């Protein structure tokens, strides 16, 4: 007995299987890897070298980049060093700089930033596109200690980026360490929802919610160009406890730029340090041109001060000017490329007291 439905189904299944096999066997991964490398380096402004170990299909409609390494480009001074006697090298390290100071002692030389991301995947999502009535791309980033997932929606009246941070184990994720220059421990989770102009690379709204637990900075030596001869600072192990952050992004009517309002940014329950940051950040074309109007306060545990001999640090001008009771208050304002910073005892009282002072100043005076 002839069954057309069964025969047609078998033909379709065979055709799909043949197509998938051919797609996998003929997938131009090497060529796409070269294109992806060039595009990523271009998007990063030529400041980083990009290496991609492997590229493969991801859910048939996307691609996955494996072991993506970003390394900071630095001026090659090796020939100059050789002509002048050179700096210290390590034969066991292939003749590359050993990271030790030139005189054999003291803090190590500043090393170029290098970040490796285990996996970055992105692909077109047909079902989400139908649900959102707009083309939608899903993405997944494996950071080693956890995942960042989400989607990008390209709508007609606005674009959206939605990100879910899945309780990342920071001890297994080296990206933050590379950016901050110190090892960070604990877990970090949260959500990021951003709205963008449909035609221009401009934020028009959104919110950021972050939750950190058992946050701690491990012992490290960091390099800074801001303190002249004190080019290196020893950072002791420091417990910040929990982080709760709620930032709201909005674009006021008539304003050409959006503003990030720090509704809450608080480190609490820390064994060594507690702190709060509030105010707003007016975003510019880049972070350097953004303008800050932020206040902050920090409290240090007495045992932490004594065990790390921080009394002399807390006697510096900024700390002395900003101290009120057990807290140290500060204000930061101006362009982030060259911000201004000073101690502020009013900030040491916290955001609630600061809001109360503003209300008292703005209240109408009574009749005499």
From TrEMBL:
Keyword Transmembrane: yes
Region (Disordered): 76-114, 342-368
Sequence intervals crossing the membrane: 6-27
Superkingdom per UniProt: Bacteria
Keyword annotations from UniProtKB, A to Z: Membrane, Transmembrane, Transmembrane helix
InterPro entries: T2SS_GspN_Lepto
Name this polypeptide is given: Type II secretion system protein GspN
Species the sequence originates in: Persicimonas caeni
Lineage of the organism: Bacteria, Deltaproteobacteria, Bradymonadales, Bradymonadaceae, Persicimonas
Gene name, Swiss-Prot/TrEMBL: gspN
């Amino acid at each position: 007995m002839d069954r057309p439905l069964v025969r047609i189904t078998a033909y379709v299944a065979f055709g799909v299987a043949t197509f998938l096999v051919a797609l996998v066997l003929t997938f131009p991964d090497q060529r796409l890897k070269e294109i992806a490398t060039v595009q990523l380096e271009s998007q990063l402004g030529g400041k980083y070298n990009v290496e991609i170990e492997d590229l493969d299909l991801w859910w048939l409609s996307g691609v996955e980049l494996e072991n993506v390494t970003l390394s900071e480009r630095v001026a090659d001074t090796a020939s100059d060093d050789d002509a002048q006697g050179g700096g210290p090298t390590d034969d066991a390290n292939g003749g590359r700089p050993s990271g030790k100071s030139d005189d054999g002692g003291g803090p190590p030389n500043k090393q170029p930033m290098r970040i490796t991301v285990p996996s970055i995947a992105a692909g077109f999502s047909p079902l989400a596109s139908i649900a959102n009535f707009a083309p939608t791309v899903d993405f997944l980033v494996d950071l080693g200690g956890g995942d960042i997932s989400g989607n990008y929606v390209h709508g007609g009246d606005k674009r959206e980026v939605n990100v879910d941070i899945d309780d990342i184990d920071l001890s297994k994720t080296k990206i933050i360490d590379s950016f901050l220059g110190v090892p960070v421990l604990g877990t970090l989770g949260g959500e990021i929802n951003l709205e963008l102009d449909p035609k221009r690379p401009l934020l028009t709204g959104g919110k950021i919610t972050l939750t950190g637990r058992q946050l701690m900075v491990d012992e490290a030596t960091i390099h800074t160009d801001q303190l002249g001869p004190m080019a290196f600072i020893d950072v002791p192990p420091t417990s910040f406890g929990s982080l709760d952050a709620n930032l709201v992004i909005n674009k006021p009517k008539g304003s050409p730029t959006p503003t990030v309002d720090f509704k809450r940014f608080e480190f609490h329950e820390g064994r060594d340090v507690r702190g709060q940051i509030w105010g707003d950040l007016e975003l510019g074309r880049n972070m350097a041109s953004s303008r800050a109007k932020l206040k902050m306060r920090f409290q240090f545990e007495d045992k932490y001060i004594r065990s790390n001999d921080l009394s002399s640090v807390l006697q510096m001008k900024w700390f002395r000017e900003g101290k009120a009771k057990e807290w140290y208050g500060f204000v930061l304002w101006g362009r982030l490329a060259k911000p201004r910073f000073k101690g502020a005892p009013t900030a040491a009282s916290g955001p609630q007291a600061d809001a109360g002072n503003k209300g008292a100043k703005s209240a109408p005076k009574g009749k005499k």
